[in-house]
User: Fold this.
Amino acid sequence: MSGRRLPDADERVIARRAEIAAALAGLVAPDAVIAHERQMRPYETDGLTAYRQLPLVVVLPSTTAEVAAVLKYCHHNEIRVVPRGAGTSLSGGALPLGDAVLIGMGKFTRILEIDLENRCAVVEPGVTNLAITKAVEAQGFYYAPDPSSQIACTIGGNVAENAGGVHCLKYGLTTHNVLGAELVLPTGEIVELGGKHLDAGGLDLLSVVIGSEGLLGIVTRVTVRLLKKPDTARALLVGFATSEDAGECVARIIGQGIIPAGIEMMDRDAIAAAEAFVQVGYPLDVEALLIIELDGPEAECTHLMEQVVAIARACRAANLRVSQSEEERLGFWAGRKAAFPAVGRLSPDYLCMDGTIPRKRLPEVLARMRELSARYGLRLANVFHAGDGNLHPLILFDANAPGELDAAEALGSDILRLCVEVGGVLTGEHGVGIEKRDLMPVMFSDGDLLQQQRLKCAFDGKGLLNPGKVFPTLHRCAEAGRMQVSGGALSFPDLPRF
Amino acid sequence: MTAPLTPRDEADLAEAVGGAFARSETLEVVGQGSRRALGRATRSDALLDVSALSGITLYEPEELVLSARAGTPLSDIAAQLDAHGQMLAFEPADLGPLLGGPAGSGSLGGTVAVNLCGPRRLSAGAARDHMLGLRAVSGRGELFKAGGRVVKNVTGYDLPRLFTGAFGTLGVLTELTLKVMPKPPAEETLLVCGLGPGEPADAASRALTSAMGSSCEVSGAAFLPAAIAARLPDLEGVGDAVAFRMEGVAPSIAARRERLAGLMAAYGTLETLPEAPSRALWAALRDVQPFHDGKAAPRVVWRISTAPAGGPALAELLATTLDGEAFCDWAGGLIWLALPPGASRAVEVRRATARHGGHATLIRADAAERARVPVFQPLEGALAALTRRVKASFDPKGVLNRGRMHEGM
Ligand SMILES: Cc1cc2nc3c(=O)[nH]c(=O)nc-3n(C[C@H](O)[C@H](O)[C@H](O)COP(=O)(O)OP(=O)(O)OC[C@H]3O[C@@H](n4cnc5c(N)ncnc54)[C@H](O)[C@@H]3O)c2cc1C
Assistant:
């Protein structure tokens, strides 16, 4: 375990493990409580595998009433809680705490209703992202957000992280595709937010629950929007001798008013890794490769593809292929979708960064990342949601080599600082979690963070839900209520950070 | 009421709100004042006029992003965007005339504060879906920021969206950053006239569901009962109708029109409206023109958000049982209902809506009525308490627009 500290575990709570497990077993099915070390092992980490921690106890409720009962018990007894979906978070959002009950939502796997007349589905949070599309694809519908982890990750986790995917340029993030949710508050109270209708009736609380990283409540039901599958999708694979040319191509496409379904970019190292892994015919002699996908009626794809090809040529495309069949299109994507595991083969370990930048700053950011990579002596491969500026630099390292994890984390932090410096943000879709928690002050002042924390207090007055994530400093709610910011300065400036 | 506060900049504004907080006074926040008649009628100790905080601060067309101070007139923003072939894709409605004021007024902050949108809500979303970042002053007079200027951002809670539609009850917006989109190069409308077979509302629901369940990508879908249609531009004599808008490049529209016409032939006779009348029609629906009653004796107007498939039936039911008129936008998901002047019939409207799922907001009624009945869907139980705590987390003394959404909040 490296850099990021977690809040100190409360030994008095740990000492009560057996008693707590027994009490929980009275609230859910008895076999739904796990307190043995060996059986808790599978829960000790998430997608940020450098960090491991056994929970106090694992509980696997299967109904909203059980979730409410468990939360009420924990609230009454002041026991911390960490919610968990499939555990694919790349920011350590689902990392357990030694004195916290881990609530696994893995039993919430039912699709409760498919309502094609209203183009929505009501599902339990443990349903995987892909399972929603699978359930409606025979009728020609799908659920739009498509994170690369979609076979495994759950819709509850997607809501908590506001997950994106390669098609968000045109179809939006989770927040644009969720209509409603049932949420259990840390007190065990249940609230219904949204529904099958489009607009919130009062404050749009759903919008802050989405992306709340398990800090505001536990989502027990989700109503998602379904879209009709477009008639056609066609992709263009185009290589460039410089990332500047590729960047210019993206800017000109969007500048001409064309919004493709997705635009992905890979740099030389990522291309080489992907090609070695899946052999889909990516050109190896280019600095940057774009996959540009258009979808819609056949006539539209044909019409716009001509324009996009012309733009790519004008931007000095070194090499260009338009998919002629569905098989070929999927081939173009196969390399991109396998980019993480492909890079994983080059190196014992990697960290996946997730900053977003204004698109036009890309060449400059790539150049400065190369300098940073040289300075730290660690290799980088870049995949990039080029249409929306979301950058995924993969930092290659060996956790067994002394100091490399620390160096990799330091390089990652420098990259994210760079993203903020050029006008971007720390995380585009993976969340803050523990990974970027200590970088929050790079983007936000203490006063900005205080507003966020007061909102957290409105949901979770005792600060029991997922502590140690997202916020670099934990204020007690009473304290956050008393503090005052004026002229950019906080009246209690010297509170401890982790 | 004392003289309005007219801060010149953010720092001034923070000081003004901080002063009100210290003195435990209440403020009503106004931009251009074009939407003051929306929400519960309230009384405050002073007006806080933010119209001096004006001007576009960043516009990068190729990055699809625009930032502007909250008091910037929406018309200035539209003009800037237009010059680059871009737009606010959520199609903010101009409710001025509906509320008895002039057309063409309104600020960006006001638009966002009430989460305005138009027919394109269906495909492009509301103001909330285009919000990227904000700067605001809390009810304690603290200036803060949230979000950013890029479309993909999950750094911290999504306050920009929470503040959208909060009617200025959480903070005073000072600067906003939004996603902008290219204007579609062309549009046209397909009308299905003389709806049948069977009851018009029923046929409308089936027609709307069929179109929305196809890949025709409509960006406007309305149900217009005959009496409403007769008052819309170019729609005289169409009878009960549904209208579908298609936008995009010409070859795409042609392909989609052909497909949609095939699906719709069973529900009525078909007509197409080319570009200009199509634009006029959707602008009229966006601005709720059928209910622009002038100054005389304006009717009560409700806006109901419901599950779309049941929308036409609910519209029809409300209109007949309450002696009013209604039409649907958003493929049935939005009902505009006009009732005779006077009592708003809130209990009946909400009881009927509850059976279909969704909620009703009172949009136009005299101030006495807007003080008497809940303008927004009443909150209950844990949700009411949570809403109260969220309001208090930003504005613990209830300085800003107190009571504008919910009594005492
Ligand atoms: C190979 C790989 C590729 C990935 N690609 C993408 C991508 O393309 N786009 C993208 O956005 N992400 C991606 N991710 C990240 C990850 O898959 C997403 O963040 C996903 O949404 C997490 O879902 P999960 O079910 O695994 O949640 P978990 O990892 O279990 O939990 C994530 C967070 O959600 C909270 N949580 C989970 N369930 C609930 C609930 N029911 N109620 C309240 N809080 C809850 C947890 O406390 C935690 O904070 C990728 C991850 C991997 C490993």
Notes: Residues 448 and 490 of chain A are 10 Å apart (CA to CA). The longest strand of chain A covers residues 232-240. The longest helix of chain A spans residues 404-421.
